[in-house]
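Hello,

I think I submitted the zinc ion job twice by accident. Can you confirm which output corresponds to this input? Input:
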Amino acid sequence: MSERTLVVDFDGTVTEEDLLDTIASTFGDPIVYQEVEDGLHGGQMSLKDVITREFEPVRRPLDEVVRWELDNVRIRPGFRELVELAEERGWRFAIVSSGFHELIEPILEREGVDVELHANRVDARPDGWRVRWQYGEDCGSCGESCKRSVAEELAGEEELVYIGDGYSDRCAAELADRVFARRGLAEWMDEHGLPYEPFEDFFDVTKSLDGAAR
Ligand SMILES: [Mg+2]
Ligand SMILES: [Zn+2]
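Support: Only one job matched these inputs. Its output is below.
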């Protein structure tokens, strides 16, 4: 029996750095990247448009980018231990990402971690990467194609614990029973007077969740 569902963001949460940002700015066009990031944070652009536009100038073959990320991307400490705790306790555990299966799966494989993953897909075409968006249209709450409905469905009647760091986590975090937040998400939660627990690594999360389960 589960009773608790953990939904975890990938970029900048499971990974120490935001992989989508790094790939879009390193392998794409840094000027386009800055333009659309400013548009997102200025409220003129949706996340979906931002990710779509950021990846259009990326032309490298997928295997080259995967090789690069396997050499460069680090996982936040304690991730495997949190997955193991969830298994032990029978909690459902899912990564819900705005990133791409094609970039996330090789990293999880490298870490030897097998977890449920919800993400977009990318068609790494030589004339520019095309995002194949997997989330539904227009959330009733934020008006964007967002993670909320996925998180809601995963948790059902169970306690929803959400762990994230950024823009794409806001709407789902608002819905969650319990939130662990860092960086941009933590700032946004502060601005909106929403409760959360800050975390540095997943050992912090494990300690807090495990304590509460006893
Ligand atoms: Mg993130
Ligand atoms: Zn939403």
